[in-house]
Amino acid sequence: MTVFANTQQAQQSFWHPMAHPASVRQSAVTRIVSGEGVYVTDDKGQRMVDGVAGLWNVNLGHNRPEIKAAIMHQLDELAYYQSFDGVSHPRVEELSARLSAMLAPEQMARVMLSSGGSDAVETALKVSRQYWKLVGEPERTRFISLRQGYHGTHFGGTSINGSLVFRRNYEPLLPGCIQIDAPWPYRNPWNAGGEELGALCAAQLEREILAQGPDTVAAFIAEPVQGAGGVIVPPANFWPLVRAVCDKYGVLLIADEVVTGFGRSGNMFGCRGWGVSPDIICLAKGITSGYIPLGATLVNQRIAGAFEQNGNFTGALMHGYTYSGHPVACAAALVCLDLVEREQIPANAAKQGDYLLQALKPFEQKFAAVGEVRGKGLMLALDLVSDKASREPVDPMDGFANQIARVARAHGAMVRPVGTKIILSPPLTIQLPELDILVNALDTAFSQTA
Ligand code: PLP
């Protein structure tokens, strides 16, 4: 094997996603070389609690022998076969049945597999469009989503993305994509909170559907708890009200559970935490705990039935990927789902998430730059402000969040700076001692930097 690590050629060839090439100073790159449980180690030997679980996905922790064994076993049996037009293999069928069973309370009927979250969202958008053609309402083409929402990087997902920063370099995008205000208690146009805010946002959705014309709206899509946009936890009435508005106008409801699926928000699925059954659910990340790429899009019988009843060519799903249902990914997912259930991962996320939130809340008083600490389960954000009273965010260009992350890493905590926020999303297996390491490292980072 040719080892390029640390050579100039390797450093210059690798194009960092989501970063300006010139902004990635090679001397400052955190290069992770190994992982064990909730810890990762960098190339300088620094061991850190993985406060971000890779990228919200290594939910079961690093280097789990059970997952590696399932992958090895599958490689021995069948490394790859396709699942297009009537060909299949056992793992893809087992995983589809398993996901349908797990989501039986939400009445999910069919599963379409892919390679990640962006694929899962793209599948959901295309299935929505096709559904409306199948039921004789082809003019229903528009999608409504939330500001601050993140739905991946394909053209569909980019078009419904709620942050301009992900959209503007790629315009023109899919027409007919509209964003409404997120139910964000800390920052919203009405300075409202609680149930009042949930009702205002649901009313805005209804107004937007009426403004567009209900017979032109295909679907509303949102994350049960917004993740990348800054861990925005909606009031408890928001999702039930959204379901009611969608039902009133026949609009499909898509839950993007790429982050929240499999326990991260403290419930097995985020929408279950809000007591709502969507029509389509997008999953990825925790489905394989990040060991192998995999995405899944599930639809309920309303949608599955429309495809089944249509006997001619239009009922065929003309969508799928070479790696839809990759056997090795399916094998990894099957064992991960066993572990999620056996180890009661959602309950641990709820318990440890409460502890972490309570431990970090005093930062709001202690540090001038911490406007709010918020979260649900093991997804948390520290909102960084230049002025507490006005809640004015820090200037994202001044590098403050990066500086906090750098100091935290030097003190044993891998945390993620995202614009004007510090994001925490550790493995869902984390326990108290490691949470304390995260809290202490962040305390030191703010004390030294603020
Ligand atoms: N949807 C949500 C809610 C996400 O957070 C992400 C990624 O973070 C995606 C979709 C895209 O997933 P991927 O990066 O696997 O394509």
UniProtKB/TrEMBL annotation:
Keyword rRNA-binding: no
First and last residue of the signal peptide: none
InterPro entries listed in its UniProt record: Aminotrans_3, Aminotrans_3_PPA_site, PyrdxlP-dep_Trfase, PyrdxlP-dep_Trfase_major, PyrdxlP-dep_Trfase_small
Gene Ontology MF term list: transaminase activity
Keyword Transferase included in the entry's annotation: yes
Gene3D superfamilies with a match to the protein in the record: Aspartate Aminotransferase, domain 1, Type I PLP-dependent aspartate aminotransferase-like (Major domain)
Cofactor(s), names only, from the UniProt record: pyridoxal 5'-phosphate
Superkingdom of source: Bacteria
Keyword vocabulary terms for this entry: Aminotransferase, Pyridoxal phosphate, Transferase
Similarity comment: Belongs to the class-III pyridoxal-phosphate-dependent aminotransferase family.
Listed name of the protein: Aspartate aminotransferase family protein
Organism of provenance: Zobellella aerophila
